[in-house]
Amino acid sequence: MGGGEGALTLRILKFNVRSFGAGMMGAVNGMRPSGEVDSSCMQSREVWTGTTYALAATMLHEVLAHESEVEAGGKEADEGVKELWSAAFETAHGLYVTGWKEAGYWFQTPEGWELSGNYRSLGYMRPLSIWAMQWALQDKLNSLPTVDDAAWSRYKAHKNGSKHLEFVRL
């Protein structure tokens, strides 16, 4: 992606996600240009779960906006979009690794955590921003082909002995 929000979010991925906790903790709030975590205040050295999910959702929105412009003929396809798509899930994956797989917070997800493992505010509500990722993808999911009732009935009637590909009713 040449510029704009896509390039900015990839820069955040490089500095605030990949350069913190081996890329497996989420996006740290404060990172200095030197690549060192900003320790000037408590919040800058934390990963906020809600903010990290919002960052991942922003990346997905950028990908889908770019795809819409390409389909409308307003833009050329860009290979950087694939990187941004992967970046969104890489960013969110760090929260899974730290929050669920390693720390086992499950439904008591805290507001944030530090590299040391210290956390703050268990049972925080901002992690619900994971649904922003779902919202970003919803139009794409809704555009997938579905099976109408007549086609489903024909499929069920001819299922036995049929060599056709199976499909699932959504």
From TrEMBL:
Domain of life, source organism: Eukaryota
Glycosyl-hydrolase family 116 catalytic region domain: residues covered: 11-133
InterPro entries to which the protein is assigned, alphabetical: GH116_catalytic (IPR006775), Non-lysos_glucosylceramidase (IPR052566)
GO MF annotation: an example: beta-glucosidase activity
Pfam families: DUF608
Protein name per UniProt: Glycosyl-hydrolase family 116 catalytic region domain-containing protein
Taxonomic lineage: Eukaryota, Viridiplantae, Chlorophyta, Pyramimonadophyceae, Pyramimonadales
